[in-house]
Amino acid sequence: MISPSTDNMHINSETSTVNGTSHTAYGKNVVAELKKEEKEEAKAVQKLSKEHDIVLKTFRILIADLCQQFGGGHPGGAIGMAAIGVALWKYVMRYAPHTPDYFNRDRFVLSNGHTCLFQYTFLHLTGYKDMTLDQLKSYHSERVDAICPGHPEIEIEGIEVTTGPLGQGIANAVGLAMATKNLQATYNTPDFDVVSNHTWCMIGDACLQEGVALEAISYAGHLKLNNLTVIYDNNQITCDGSVDLTNTEDVNTKMRACNWNVIDIEDGCFDIEAIVDALNQARASTDKPTFINIRTVIGLGSKVAGDAAAHGAAFGTEDVANIKRVYGFNPDEHFVIGKEVRDFFEKIPDRGQQLVQSWEKKVQEYESKYPELGAEFRRRREGKLPDNWEDLIPASFPEKPVASRAASGLVFNPIAKACNNFMVGTADLSPSVNMIWKDKVDFQPPDLKTQCGITGNYSGRYIHYGIREHAMAAISNGLAAYAPNTIIPVTSSFFMFYLYAAPAVRMGALQHLQVIHVATHDSIGTGEDGPTHQPIELANLYRAMPNILYIRPGDSEEVAGAWKVAIEAKNTPSIISTSRQALPQIPQTRRDMVAKGAYVLEEVDDADLTLIGVGAELSFAVNVAEALKEKNIKARVVSFPSWRLFEAQPLEYRRDVLRRHRFPAVVIEPYAANGWERYANAGINMKRFGQSLPCKAVYKLFGFETEPMTEKVSAYLERLKSDEILRTEWVDL
Amino acid sequence: MISPSTDNMHINSETSTVNGTSHTAYGKNVVAELKKEEKEEAKAVQKLSKEHDIVLKTFRILIADLCQQFGGGHPGGAIGMAAIGVALWKYVMRYAPHTPDYFNRDRFVLSNGHTCLFQYTFLHLTGYKDMTLDQLKSYHSERVDAICPGHPEIEIEGIEVTTGPLGQGIANAVGLAMATKNLQATYNTPDFDVVSNHTWCMIGDACLQEGVALEAISYAGHLKLNNLTVIYDNNQITCDGSVDLTNTEDVNTKMRACNWNVIDIEDGCFDIEAIVDALNQARASTDKPTFINIRTVIGLGSKVAGDAAAHGAAFGTEDVANIKRVYGFNPDEHFVIGKEVRDFFEKIPDRGQQLVQSWEKKVQEYESKYPELGAEFRRRREGKLPDNWEDLIPASFPEKPVASRAASGLVFNPIAKACNNFMVGTADLSPSVNMIWKDKVDFQPPDLKTQCGITGNYSGRYIHYGIREHAMAAISNGLAAYAPNTIIPVTSSFFMFYLYAAPAVRMGALQHLQVIHVATHDSIGTGEDGPTHQPIELANLYRAMPNILYIRPGDSEEVAGAWKVAIEAKNTPSIISTSRQALPQIPQTRRDMVAKGAYVLEEVDDADLTLIGVGAELSFAVNVAEALKEKNIKARVVSFPSWRLFEAQPLEYRRDVLRRHRFPAVVIEPYAANGWERYANAGINMKRFGQSLPCKAVYKLFGFETEPMTEKVSAYLERLKSDEILRTEWVDL
């Protein structure tokens, strides 16, 4: 008899670790064994209660049917994980299908997202209202409003994060668990645990190979996230064959070396009781995250059981029919969910509503006893910042040259200090990114005493991620996904290393998560570190990526504007791209105009051309315009911090800024030109990688000094006069 | 007395593993201890021979001086690693300063590339001719022809790979060691070991946190690369402070779990003898790669010793002077390398030339005894392919629709089979990428027997990288860097996952390494897998990245052209971007024109517009042109597989293809438009992420069907007639 977990369960016994006995054979061997197993099935099933038996069979057949209808999809993993799902959704997880966004719900992440039918089907069985049987059957259909896409998507009730690209989900789960820790440390009191949820993350063999997951695993162990459980669907199969083709490490020992508890489950296909026991042990862990290594068989019951062929293709009508026959089902019936199965899950929505009501009552009492804390906790749940955050932005800046990374600190440090929504992290570049505020507290396990003398606790909001840029961004997606805008994660690094982080930055954009990325050293002006650290082409990626704001402010005033835009972008990640080197302050810049994407810095009615300046090199355009005057050439100057913001403006505004039908435009930016052709006719840009030289010398080497640029622009205007075709073409100056 | 290693040394004793005793204290504690240490220095130094003592002091002072001259750079790590350098360059590594590209040299990779002065200084001391003292002093100078950039660069004599972005170097080293294994298995005979070099890789604390390194470590253990040694400069300091701020795992246990030998060195600052012993043990390993965990003190001797402040800034003139005083040097003298130190390294070039001569003699004898094998080994060393490789490309293709990923296999499989320069890998997508040739042999340790029944050996050239896209690309850079074009690595995955691999792909481009990346599932046509797997913006990155050929062939004929270009691009990586779905074969496509980047598919003299089609959607442009005829609109059609190749054509050719002064151009490509503005006036492109739907349905959803596209194009032409400004602007259709 397995008891359902309750919200107030506290098991304080130390988590024990069951060492693995011999590993079940997999791959082709397993297929042979399965044939024996099929014969002996009656015996195996006796280990199961009758109702578990029928639930597992129904679930497995349903998955086979759902993949078979359109002849595609990923049946094998979902079928292998059936017993794990029953353990989680029936016995262990605390959630409310009829209040899917219940704040204190356990979070579940399917990091092996291609097995999405596993999750969709349990959402259906446990009573999530949107997930009807009809919707379930939309998997791989042409239905445009389907909620069963090929990988789980955050927009769907009961899905916490979008997954699919392997390794992302487990890092998201680390972020979700960190969010819980931070909110607990901030709002729980000795008498009220208003935040107490656990995070469960399902992974497959692939996630344990991806670098982003390995970074996140190492970091979660460091943080002692005892509220995180990773459940490893160890079926030893990937697309190419058995895992030992590419990975023969001792994963349990590796996890223990990373400060994780490890629990082994030998029979993950049927032994629901053992799985429940392990999950409950994991929830009770007091000191470490838990890794449950569960042996399963991919595509169990099918002819391709235990084989790579079970991973990413339907089994074929004949095999599906055969599974049904062996399981005692009618092979001619499809999508059958019998009454016993419905009954088995029937009470889950009510149980969930009881959880919700009990929690809401608790929060009411909490708000009465702790009115200030209660009000703040409510503000956070509503995703609001303190009202006065805008007032904290400096009204003006010193006139002397200053690096925009330093200006970024001046703008944001007071806001970070005052607004506890922000959790601000860095991938080991604290001295460079200027994100530390006075009296900041580090997010750390409270018992950590580092060699360098720094301590912290879980209420801390400054995060040292280590040299793990990819995990930093993926974990930040998890922090942001905990609840909308309750936590606004800020990441920081050199811009170039947002190429390491790019897959996770993309996932944030895809999920409409507000994450603010603060990137410094954003051009060849970075200098001595050389071409490996000088971004030339990276902005092109982020300018092309949907739903992200890439902003290159030109001086401190524009930095203020960039931060305002980023903080107000509640459904969109931003990248604030700043300079290593000091930048002159330009009197005409305006913080309020950054939100327009581009604006006229210097207007001239009878101009000869428009010069476009950007970010760290905005002053170059101003200087060239000035120098052109000596040649009797009149240049308008446009500051252009963000393409995406500009594209959102009305056509009329965009035409007023660019006036391209009247004047040719030349852009100055030491990045690859690609895309500037939309706004300009010619450009002074980069066509090769940079070079290791001091800032001024590298600008000089590539011709980004006032005199040669002025010459290039005036020569271009001359050429335009004599070559008619030129006006219809882009010209690299 | 330490003996120099010799080329024929064979130590067959089993590698022993020294377990760690208590870890030396680091961080602030160490600074306190150092003050004691300074007092007791005379005693400490007695452990050293007199000549080692003077060499270490000279080296450390030289590093401090080199950083101090321009007040910047990374002195701390290089100073901490001095004794490791002496052990490597004086006693262990087999190399030839006067023949830097000696084929059988040991490879050394500085994965912690910011400590580059460490390597530059040893190159100088051991007699590399280009690395003069004058050049050494160019570190951080404005000298444009300097060979001491801020991170090591492959173009410099004695540098094997460019490093800097952390974690890349160790993955490159895995590739270098794999190259050795493959060449050994292919060319060594029982009586001739013509390839016998070892790969040594220096890493810092950061490399052990980066995902790409963790992927490569796991894979190197799987491959049993006993010819690889990773030397861990364990100074427990990163930019933010002590490593335990972010990483408290048991690294030795983790490495052992990944199938590595582990050797501990407690006193890495002075104990050259112990280091040499460990390095020799590592070279003698018969079964595993070796990890040598060496405790050092960052910035040893300076006031900031053992502190993060020693990492990335010069020490200041006062501290540098003080170090000199304590070490018994004249504080007013700079860049001093005394006679004892010169004498210590004096014989190394001669020793190197002896190695070279002995190896050349061996190869001569080998060529006499094994003329065929010898000739082939020579061809490979010269970076040549067998002469007939082009003849292996099919002269024509079936007319029926075929996925370009399948066509890619048809073209390349016979070449891969016949030309053993190619080592072809996949990140666990063998069933999707079509890179397996008949009778291919896997690159695997010969004793591996996998559950799925696959075996291999080190002469195998098909590489299962596991789900490790980033390491796959970084390891491939190492394979390519072993010797120019001796090995031509091919990687393969879904295009979307080249975002995971992007930092390594960039490093390949920066280093001019020929690596061919085969990407499939390259558009929304990928279908059901949904937006996480549908690239929208990724091509923008690779089209903007310098020195890489991103090619999107439109049908089988263009696939043939793309492969020809990629194979002939000896100094440039390529990405061949292919479709999941079947593509119609277009009669007018021409393989020879792919090299031009773009070409006219259908010419019309009195056209109304030019339609540009690309890759998987090339047929869409052809179909729209056909449909426009019914509206009496005449469209030229241009096929445009590669921007970079087109930009390399003469202006005249480019104008002939585009004829933009005469006709407006419209591009059709379901990617972000950015950059197409250079070649077209309007586009039918993507402005949001894709959606999980079957291929045809997703194209329909986003309007990529002939009818709506034809309507858009004709409406645009109408608008052009009435709106003069429109012709000067880009229009999103």
Protein model, in words:
Chains A, B: Mg(2+) binds at residues 205, 235, 237. Chains A, B: Substrate binds at residues 74, 311, 405, 432, 521, 529, 533, 580. Chains A, B: Belongs to the transketolase family. Chains A, B: One of its GO terms (cellular component) is cytosol. Chains A, B: The active site is at residue 469. The structure is a homodimer of 733-residue chains. By secondary structure, chain A is of the alpha/beta class. The first copy, chain A, has 3 domains: 27-110 and 127-354, Rossmann fold (3-Layer(aba) Sandwich); 387-583, Rossmann fold, CATH 3.40.50.970; 598-732, Rossmann fold. In chain A, 38% of the residues lie in helices and 12% in strands. Chain A contains 26 helices and 23 strands. A 6-stranded parallel sheet of chain A has the order 12-9-13-14-16-15, sandwiched between helices. Chain A has a 6-stranded mixed sheet with strand order 18-20-19-21-22-23, with helices on one face. Chain A has a 5-stranded parallel sheet with strand order 1-2-3-7-6, with helices on both faces. In chain A, helix 3 packs antiparallel against helix 12, helix 16 packs across helix 21 (556-568) and helix 18 packs parallel to helix 19 (502-510). The radius of gyration of chain A is 29 Å and the shape is globular. Chain A starts with 26 loop residues before the first helix and ends with a strand. Residues 3-35 and 41-46 of chain A have low confidence and may be disordered. At the A-B interface, helix 1, helix 9, strand 5, helix 10 and helix 17 of A face helix 1, helix 9, strand 5, helix 10 and helix 17 of B.
